[in-house]
Every structure is written in structure tokens, then in C-alpha cells.
């Protein structure tokens, strides 16, 4: 390997997760490594064309950090607050003592508070305007999770919302890295959150033909890269990372889980929802991330794939992986087999899992993968059980409606043991 770039390399010093696999980073990691799917029939989606989802369970905003008045917050904001508070604790930072003017919040979401929007619109139509809450707007506006985090953490630096559909969380992390690199902040609390397991969203995705029909087996519905895949399973959750310049983290003796060594962003400019068939722009985003990391494709030991389980996405992504890395390429996994597609949170949740893979030198399995088809063969899909292995460099792929591609490259921290 040519070596991760030095100077203003970004360190990941904290991780926070709220996912269908668990409330908290360790609980999520253990469930993902077990390969046990979370998809189940969802009574709240009764009547929708598809009623299977990966929903966060065992979560309560009072217990898990959703704010002192949880009724004021949409579910996606509650998730973001809980994940951010865990990440800040994990980074051994105290918001009461940091310089808030030098801290940034960058949070991605595909839909914002869509659950609150649906609920308030239903009130308007069925009961009248007096039934609409005066807090409806701050509940569902997409930027409000970032704004609430700023209030909760005492952040006075840049507070931004990113919206690149299912790549939103990854875009937030790349944006935060650029803020650090440009001296716009010293600490960035960044990631993504979404709570789109709602009747409207489930119906819309089903009508678009994007959701798995599951064939009477909800637990087996999310099948990334498998020959029998027929769509994704709608999920929800949040992933938040604390990012700092590596030199600053070292100076304060902070724990460094991994290094965000590079990032790349491109757009297909091809179709509103379908990926570019030749995958050129996803390939270009990977090239950008590797160039920043001072690496070449042969240095990559692991890919956390976008891997939605839709026939077209997986075929295109697999072709890019084969072209970039050859038939003897890196170990590939998709967490969506366990946690479903967490939408705008996916890029951040999967980045967090990639950080843990690099730190712990273990690649989680792809749940429900049994056999490849002609479009996904010759890709090393980890399945059956987690695989302990050397991971010198890992990339996390995220793609979204609108043609967005974001690739993040992670390398072990200075105290990690590789090999």
C-alpha cells in the first residue's frame, strides 16, 4: 500500500448507532455480525402493498436521548439525538467544556420528519386546521434534526443538512471532512438519520417496484446480491460519527477507531432513480476516494457495498467491483440483509459498520445470500458467518435517487493491529 495521506487526515473518534439491529453501537454490531435479519411483518403498514419492514424496536426517546419533551420531536430527530449523544460520549468529549464555535454538525436525511408530515396532514384532512399542531413545521422540516443537535450539544459552528437521497449520510460525512480540512471547525458531529417506515413511503416505494415482496418469508426478504433478490426492505435508524483532525485527536489522547482516509462524490446524470448501467460514475467516486487515501484498488481488502437487494442496483455495483478489483477482489458485504435499507441514514450507518470492521478486523456476513446469478458472480460476498481477516483499507459505497454516488475510504487508526 502506498500509505494513507498524512497532514490533515481525519480521525473517527466516536461512533453512535440506532438501527433495527439494536439501540447502540455494540448491540448493532453484534446483530449484524450474527447475520440474523430483522425484517418482519409490520402491523403499522397494514393495508400497504408491502407490509414488511425493518423497524427500530426497544427505543424510547426518554431513555435513549430523544429530548426532554419527546412529543416535540419527529422519530428521525429522536434517532439522531440518541446516536449523536452516544458518539460524543464514545469520543470522550464533553459538550459542556468544548468551544462550541469550533464544532460543526452535518446531518443527512432523505425525507426529514415524514412521519410527522403524514400525521399532521391526516389531521388537516379529517379534523380541520385547528387540529394541526403549531409545532408541525419544526417537527418535519428536514434540517430540524441538525438544528436540534446543535441546541442539545451547544454547537455554534456550521450546522448543515445534506439531502442526496440514500447517500445523504455519506454526503454528510464527506462534507464534514471538507469542513475539517478547510479549517471550518475542529470537531464535526456528522452522519444521517431517517424514519421512513410509514404508510406513504412504503406505498410509494412499492408502487415504484422497489420493495421486496418477500414471498411469505419476511425474514428472508432482504437478499443483497442473491440470485433470488427482488427488492429492498424499508428500514429506519441513525448513524453518527465524531470526526476530528488526526493531529488534534492525538494531541488530546483521544480514542481513534479508524481514519477517514478519503472520499469521493459523483453524479450519474443518467436517470432519476436508475443507476447508470456502466457504473462509470460510481467507479470514478471510488477512484477519487482512493487517490485521496494515497491508495490503489489492490490495497482495498473490504467493500461495504450499497447492496440494496434490487436486481438492477446489485448487478451494476457488482460489475463495478469486478472491473475495479478483478475476480480476486476484496471481501464484500451488505448490512442491508440484516437491517434493511435505512434510507438517508444508510451511508452513515454503513460507514460506522465499516469503521468497526477496520478496527476489529472482522467482516460481517451478508444475510440471506445463498447463490449468485450471472450479474453478481465473481464477487467475494461474505456470507454464512463473519470473517476475521486483515483489513488494511476499506471502502463504503452509497448511491441514491438522483444519481448520487459517494464512496468513503477508511484505514486503521494508529493503534490498530492489522494482519
UniProtKB/TrEMBL annotation:
Q: Name one Pfam family in it.
A: Ketoacyl-synt_C
Q: Where is this region: Disordered?
A: 262-282
Matching InterPro entries: Beta-ketoacyl_synthase (IPR000794), Ketoacyl_synth_AS (IPR018201), Ketoacyl_synth_C (IPR014031), Ketoacyl_synth_N (IPR014030), PKS_Beta-ketoAc_synthase_dom (IPR020841), Thiolase-like (IPR016039)
Keyword Kinase in the entry? The reply is no
**Which stretches are annotated as coiled coil?**
none
Print the keywords alphabetically: Acyltransferase, Transferase
Residues of the Ketosynthase family 3 (KS3) domain: 7-412
> Which family is this protein grouped under?
Belongs to the thiolase-like superfamily. Beta-ketoacyl-ACP synthases family.
Protein name as annotated: Beta-ketoacyl-[acyl-carrier-protein] synthase family protein
Biological source species = Streptomyces oryzae
Amino acid at each position: 500500500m502506498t500509505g494513507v495521506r498524512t497532514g490533515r487526515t481525519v480521525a473517527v473518534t466516536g461512533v453512535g448507532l440506532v438501527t433495527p439491529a439494536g439501540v447502540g453501537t455494540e448491540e448493532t454490531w453484534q446483530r449484524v455480525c450474527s447475520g440474523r435479519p430483522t425484517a418482519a411483518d409490520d402491523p403499522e403498514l397494514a393495508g400497504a402493498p408491502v407490509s414488511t419492514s425493518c423497524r427500530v424496536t426497544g427505543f424510547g426517546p426518554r431513555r435513549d436521548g430523544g429530548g426532554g419533551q419527546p412529543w416535540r420531536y419527529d422519530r428521525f430527530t429522536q434517532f439522531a439525538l440518541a446516536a449523536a449523544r452516544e458518539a460524543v460520549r464514545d469520543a470522550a468529549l464533553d459538550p459542556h467544556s468544548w468551544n462550541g464555535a469550533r464544532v460543526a454538525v452535518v446531518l443527512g436525511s432523505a425525507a426529514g420528519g415524514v412521519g410527522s408530515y403524514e400525521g399532521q396532514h391526516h389531521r388537516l384532512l379529517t379534523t380541520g386546521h385547528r387540529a394541526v399542531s403549531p409545532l408541525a413545521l419544526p417537527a418535519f422540516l428536514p434540517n430540524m434534526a441538525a438544528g436540534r443537535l446543535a441546541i442539545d450539544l451547544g454547537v455554534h459552528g456550521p450546522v448543515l443538512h445534506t439531502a442526496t437521497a440514500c447517500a445523504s449520510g455519506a454526503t454528510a460525512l464527506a462534507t464534514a471532512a471538507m469542513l475539517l480540512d478547510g479549517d471550518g471547525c475542529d470537531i464535526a458531529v456528522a452522519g444521517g438519520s431517517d424514519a421512513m417506515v410509514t404508510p406513504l413511503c412504503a406505498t410509494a416505494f412499492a408502487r415504484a417496484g422497489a420493495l421486496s415482496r418477500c414471498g411469505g418469508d419476511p425474514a428472508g426478504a432482504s437478499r443483497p446480491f442473491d440470485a433470488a433478490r427482488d427488492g429492498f426492505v424499508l428500514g429506519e435508524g441513525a448513524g453518527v460519527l465524531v470526526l476530528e483532525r488526526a493531529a488534534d485527536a492525538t494531541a488530546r489522547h483521544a480514542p481513534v477507531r479508524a481514519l477517514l482516509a478519503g472520499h469521493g462524490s459523483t453524479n450519474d446524470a443518467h436517470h432519476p432513480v436508475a443507476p447508470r448501467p456502466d457504473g462509470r460514475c460510481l467507479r470514478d467516486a471510488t477512484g477519487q476516494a482512493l487517490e485521496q487515501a494515497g491508495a490503489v484498488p489492490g490495497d482495498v481488502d473490504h467493500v461495504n457495498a450499497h447492496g440494496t437487494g434490487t436486481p438492477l442496483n446489485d448487478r451494476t455495483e457488482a460489475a463495478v467491483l469486478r472491473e475495479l478489483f478483478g475476480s480476486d477482489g476484496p471481501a464484500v458485504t451488505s448490512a442491508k440483509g440484516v437491517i434493511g435499507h435505512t434510507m438517508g441514514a444508510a451511508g452513515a450507518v454503513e460507514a460506522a459498520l465499516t469503521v468497526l470492521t477496520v478496527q476489529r478486523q472482522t467482516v460481517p456476513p451478508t444475510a440471506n445470500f445463498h447463490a449468485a446469478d450471472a450479474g453478481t458472480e465473481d464477487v467475494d460476498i461474505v456470507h454464512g458467518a463473519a470473517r476475521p481477516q486483515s483489513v488494511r483499507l476499506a471502502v463504503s459505497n452509497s448511491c441514491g435517487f438522483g444519481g448520487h454516488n459517494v464512496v468513503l475510504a477508511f484505514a486503521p487508526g494508529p493503534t490498530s493491529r492489522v494482519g
